[in-house]
Each structure stands twice: as C-alpha cells, then as structure tokens.
Amino acid sequence: MFAPVTSLPKIGPKLGQAFARLLPTRADGLEPHVASLLFLLPHRVIDRRRVMTLAEAWDGDEATFNLRVEEHQWAPAGKTRLPHRILCGDDFNTVTLTFFQMKRPWLESAYPIGETVTVFGRLESFNGRFSMVHPDRLTGNADDGTLALVEPVYPLVQGLGPRVVKNAAHAALERLPALPEWGEPSVLLARGLPSFSAALARANACFRPRFSRCARRSSPW
After folding, report:
1. How far apart are CA 166 and CA 72, in angstroms?
2. In degrees, to the nearest 5, what angle opens at C-alpha 77 toward C-alphas 72 and 78?
3. Domain 49-138, CATH number (from 2.40.50.140, 1.10.760.10, 2.20.25.90, 3.50.50.60)
4. Between residues 215 and 40, the one the model is more confident about
5. pTM to 2 decimals?
6. Structure confidence by residue, pLDDT tens digits, 23-48
7. Among 69, 72, 73, which Cα is nearest to 88's?
8. Lesser CB count within 10 Å: N end or C end of the chain?
9. In angstroms, rounded to a whole number, what is the distance separating the alpha carbons of residues 66 and 64?
C-alpha cells in the first residue's frame, strides 16, 4: 500500500505527476502512495437506472432516454468549432443532441437515421425546446454487465480522465490487505456499520447513496 501510485497498472510518470496534484502532498515531497487512493471517495454517482420519456422529463433531469434518430444537422465545411446537432425524438416530443469536435464517421455510426438509440444525459430546456450536450451513447447490456448502470464519479484534475482515476482507485482497493478491525465490534453491530475494508469497497461501488454515508461514519478519518 505504500508503493508509489506509478506502481499501479497503466500509470506512468506523466500520470503520476497528475495524481500528485490530485492527492494529498507527502511531507517528503515524493509521489503519493497507493494508500492515498483509498480515501479518494466518489463525490457523486451517475445513476442510469432512471429511464424516462420526454413527456415525463423536466429541465435539468438526468436520465436515460430511448430516442429515434430523425436528422443530422452538420456544421458547414471548415467550421470545426461549430457544433453538430442530431434531432431525435420519442412518441411525445423531440430533443436536439449537441456535439462539439466529434468525428463524422463515429456520429453516423452511433446515431444512424431511423434507428432507436439509448442515451443518458442531462436534459436542458430553452424556448420550449429540449437539448442534451454530449450525452452518453449506451450500447451495453445491463444483464451481462457491459453497461454500468451506477457509476461513481471521482474528483479530477487536469491530465486525469474519469476512467483513469476510477481504475486507479479500484486497483488500490484490490491491494488492500486483510487488516485487524479498528472499530469496537459492539459499536459496529449496534450502529449497523460495515468493517473498514467493506466500508471502503461500498463507498467506491456506490450501489446506494446510504452506503457512502455509512462508509464515512465507519472510517477513523
């Protein structure tokens, strides 16, 4: 646990420098330990289990939608900074999906006209029209585990993407050895608290919001 973060898979010196900006600074000035990642807990959860129609949705709702792709509105040639818009709808309303600096072949493949697609994002309303900016295109299957219905969101700094931080945090958890329980067993039982290791695992899994609160109560920090 006291090895440097660069000892984790796929974390080289450049990512190690970025993690040094994200994690607490060590007194000796060296790069953070793997143990520091144990307490980098998610600050929110993306919950894709909420499926809505556009008739049910309100401005600001974050949910999963099943939409028909109706039209691609390409930016003029050479205007790379202008967004690409995709008009979609369901049986009740329409929504414009907005993308910036995305490759045309990928957009045409992911959003074929006439097909129904499943997307997750935050709905915004302006002048009575719905829009979503860079929604997630969901292609996995919840039954076979290829679609993460509940996903923890970790703090980030420049140079670190969400997947890198999540994978590093989970790799640190896998290295956590079996430790003597610091809490008094009677207190844990009376308050329904998990063990230290289980609390960290639950906080990072984020299956239900109460797990995070419970995990924080059971940590000595």
Report:
1. 34
2. 130
3. 2.40.50.140
4. 40
5. 0.66
6. 987 777 778 889 999 989 898 888 88
7. 69
8. C
9. 7
